[in-house]
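User: Hi! I have a protein structure encoded as tokens and I'd like to know what sequence might fold into it. I'm fairly new to this, so please keep things simple.
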């Protein structure tokens, strides 16, 4: 797509696929976004015609910051559907009449262009947004569902976040996707119209974060009253690092996606482990497909540790849980999505999304529950509790050497 003259300039290296849509149908969605920005005293520099999707918008905040926005927007409604619950709301991922195509979602890896992916209920003045990365690519005509009670809560609180389990499609009317989908638990965010800028901030801060950390950042935005200041430094402080140090950390990371998904947690874990008497040669691996940290315990051979964020929402007993699976599986073998006990010896569950402190619980991979269908693999739903997990890493290191 050729960008307009009002673009910031830096985003010209980023490209995305556009779709022809009916202007009369999509104009209310575009108007919703523009009006939402203006409600926060933003000045729209460029708004496209509504006959091409997604919408590329350039605007300036009251402080003069120019932001390039790519909006994948769909209508959310409560239209009755056969064999579906009566209290269900949904938005369908579809452009034009194509029902079997694949939507390629444009996400700028540099973060210069900010992508949002959302359903808009223009009648009620609310939106529900999903993680753009988790839906790239996405089968056309797929729906994202939520409940009537959720809409009531959005209208009441103005901004909420919740978890949604993802499952492979069960319908026979749509062919199985030819690509491997991200089936981890996802975090949806809902807001009233005036909170749309907060969604943009969320995507700027948490793009690529694990679901638990994304949920935590979204919850922190709930505590922030809508403001025309549009400053995000309070959220960055939540990571417990000075802003300059945080940006230097991200800038220097050899793997950008790791930097935004879990680099901060790994940095805190590395620091904590290095302070334990008896731990030597503790370092981050910084290599694709390798465990996150290697260390020696009292002169032992290397022990490999994988760091995973817990989900923000605990189980019914208030116990944290880890969605323990890879983002993708190897082609032709869905079981490769799940880890094997010998991939590394120890899982370090980062409890920050729940406690808002950089605490960790440790477990031997041999002690983790086995996957019920994939032989030799670890289950994806791991409960972080004793006796399997301990917050005393030295005890787990000792057990590892027995």
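Assistant: Happy to help. Inverse folding works backwards from shape to sequence: for each of the 402 positions I chose a residue that suits the local structure. Here it is:
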């Amino acid at each position: 797509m050729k960008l307009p003259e009002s673009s910031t300039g830096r985003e010209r290296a980023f490209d995305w696929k556009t779709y022809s849509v009916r202007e009369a149908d999509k104009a209310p969605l575009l108007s919703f976004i523009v009006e939402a920005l203006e409600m926060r005293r933003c000045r729209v520099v460029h708004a496209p015609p509504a006959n091409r999707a997604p919408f590329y918008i350039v605007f300036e905040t009251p402080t003069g910051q120019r932001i390039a926005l790519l909006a994948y927007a769909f209508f959310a409604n409560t239209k009755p559907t056969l064999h579906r619950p009566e209290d269900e709301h949904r938005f369908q991922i579809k452009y034009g009449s194509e029902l079997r195509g694949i939507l390629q979602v444009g996400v700028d890896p540099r973060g210069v262009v900010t992508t949002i992916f959302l359903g808009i209920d223009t009648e009620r003045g609310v939106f529900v947004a999903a993680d753009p990365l988790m839906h790239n690519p996405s089968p056309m005509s797929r729906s994202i569902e939520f409940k009537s009670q959720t809409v009531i809560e959005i209208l009441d609180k103005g901004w909420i976040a919740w978890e949604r389990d993802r499952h492979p499609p069960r319908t026979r009317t749509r062919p199985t996707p030819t690509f491997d989908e991200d089936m981890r638990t996802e975090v949806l965010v809902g807001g009233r119209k005036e909170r749309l800028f907060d969604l943009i901030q969320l995507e700027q801060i948490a793009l690529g974060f694990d679901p638990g950390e994304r949920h935590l950042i979204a919850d922190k935005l709930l505590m922030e009253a809508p403001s025309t200041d549009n400053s995000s430094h309070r959220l960055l402080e939540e990571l417990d690092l000075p802003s300059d140090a945080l940006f230097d950390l991200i800038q220097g990371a050899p793997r950008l996606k790791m930097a935004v998904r879990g680099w901060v947690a790994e940095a805190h874990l590395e620091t904590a482990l290095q302070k334990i008497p008896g731990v030597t040669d503790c370092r981050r691996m910084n290599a694709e497909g390798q465990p996150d940290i290697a260390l020696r315990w009292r002169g032992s051979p290397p022990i490999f540790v994988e760091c995973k964020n817990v989900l923000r929402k605990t189980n019914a007993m208030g116990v944290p849980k880890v969605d323990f699976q890879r983002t993708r599986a190897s082609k032709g073998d869905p079981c490769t999505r799940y880890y094997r006990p010998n991939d590394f010896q120890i899982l370090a569950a980062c409890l920050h999304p729940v406690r808002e402190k950089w605490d960790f619980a440790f477990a031997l991979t041999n002690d983790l529950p086995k996957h019920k269908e994939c032989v030799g693999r670890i289950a994806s739903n791991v409960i972080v509790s004793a006796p399997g997990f301990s917050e005393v890493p030295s005890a787990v290191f000792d057990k590892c050497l027995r």
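A useful reference point when you look it over: Residues 212 and 311 are 4 Å apart (CA to CA). Feel free to ask if any position seems puzzling.
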